[in-house]
């Protein structure tokens, strides 16, 4: 059996250890990728600490963001060749797709080539955050906004004169993509919240109004910019404080559309009530689950990157290869990473 190095998550609640496991072989529709950069996400530590056992086969492998080089092809794959630089999102349900190992596999239609000017480390910032923001803004399980013309998804027309959107947490990885998508579809006022040191970044990405998230009365500050008619908000942070801010800022006299990244609280009574017909949705960013959108995303993201319509978040490489996974998870969990994606290099182990 040919093995590879992998970060093995061996049992509920235990942080992973470096070990070996078989190299996954591609099925006939799959591509095998040598993982050169693996992005670290909040989901990775949450899977350990909140016991999301999505696949009961142990050891599990964590990591959803893969960037690397095609190393083998299934017999039916025609759109890639060995050596192509590619990126994809791993499903949490299949450890053979996961990022914190040296080789991973994915279906050929949920993979994108990486343009030459984008490094592997930058490419590893894209899959989960880029798709989460896409679902948040354009899928019917999110805000259901009319998408950029390259995407065909079910959407509803925007009510006339709705030119503003609120994106809570513009500096988060998800927020950085959300701002850029909002700009692509022509919102005139893109209002966001971020720490002061990230205001320049989010402005460059397309935010038109940035509020220091550490100040008071955020909702009042947002309303001063948007007026009383704000209908759309996407909360990329999703805690009681951010929910309250967004709901207070959203209009009272019309139905409003609010999407968030964590489950909607069961008890909504502590939050401001909105007009009948309002929607509050939690997104689930799985290209496998929302396959139609997933396939379209992986067709179009390469072009958006190539033409600089979309810029990636900054990446920071953790020294130590797969040995650095736990330190990276701890840094993300403790909120020590601002406006960046930590990246693991599995071959530096
Ligand atoms: N539902 C899904 O399918 C799905 C998919 C992906 C992610 N998520 C969830 O989405 C959340 C964001 O993920 P991520 O990868 O984008 O996180 P991230 O980049 O690690 O988030 C860190 C950023 O959050 C910002 N932040 C923290 N608290 C804030 C607040 N109260 N207001 C505004 N900004 C705040 C910080 O901004 P400053 O540095 O400017 O302070 C920081 O830069 C996580 O909870 C993650 O688990 C859900």
Automatic annotation (TrEMBL):
Keyword Calcium carried by entry: no
GO MF annotation terms: oxidoreductase activity, acting on NAD(P)H
Keyword field: Oxidoreductase
Domain Enoyl reductase (ER): 13-343
Pfam families: ADH_N, ADH_zinc_N
Family assignment from sequence similarity: Belongs to the zinc-containing alcohol dehydrogenase family.
Record-given protein name: GroES-like protein
Species in which this protein is naturally found: Tuber magnatum (white Piedmont truffle)
Taxonomic lineage: Eukaryota, Fungi, Dikarya, Ascomycota, Pezizomycotina
């Amino acid at each position: 059996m040919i093995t590879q190095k992998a970060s093995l998550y061996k049992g509920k609640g235990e942080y992973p250890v470096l070990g070996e496991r078989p190299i996954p072989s591609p099925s006939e529709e799959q591509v095998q990728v040598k993982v050169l950069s693996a992005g670290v996400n909040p989901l990775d530590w949450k899977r350990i600490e909140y016991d999301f056992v999505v696949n009961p086969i142990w050891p599990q492998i964590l990591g959803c963001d893969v960037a690397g080089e095609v190393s083998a092809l299934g017999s039916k794959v025609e759109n890639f060749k060995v050596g192509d630089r590619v990126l994809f999102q791993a499903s949490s349900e299949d450890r053979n797709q996961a990022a914190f190992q040296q080789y991973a596999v994915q279906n050929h239609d949920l993979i994108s080539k990486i343009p030459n000017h984008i490094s592997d480390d930058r490419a590893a910032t894209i899959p989960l955050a880029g798709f989460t923001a896409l679902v948040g803004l354009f899928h019917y399980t999110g805000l259901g906004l009319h998408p950029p013309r390259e995407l065909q998804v079910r959407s509803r027309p925007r009510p006339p004169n709705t030119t503003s959107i609120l994106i809570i947490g513009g500096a988060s990885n998800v927020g950085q993509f959300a701002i850029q998508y909002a700009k692509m579809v022509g919102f005139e006022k893109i209002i966001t919240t971020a720490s002061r040191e990230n205001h320049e970044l989010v402005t460059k990405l397309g935010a038109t109004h940035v509020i220091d998230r550490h100040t008071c009365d955020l909702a009042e500050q947002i309303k001063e910019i948007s007026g009383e008619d704000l209908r759309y908000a996407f909360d990329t942070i999703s805690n009681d404080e951010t929910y309250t801010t967004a709901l207070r800022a959203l209009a009272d006299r019309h139905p409003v559309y609010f999407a968030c990244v964590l489950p909607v609280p069961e008890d909504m009574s502590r939050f401001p009530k909105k007009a009948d017909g309002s929607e509050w949705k939690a997104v689930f960013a799985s290209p496998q689950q929302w396959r139609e959108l997933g396939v379209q995303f992986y067709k179009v993201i390469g072009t958006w990157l190539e033409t600089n319509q979309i810029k990636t978040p900054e990446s920071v490489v953790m020294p130590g290869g797969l040995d650095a996974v736990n330190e990276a998870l701890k840094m993300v969990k403790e909120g020590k990473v601002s406006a960046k994606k930590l990246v693991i290099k599995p071959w530096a182990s």
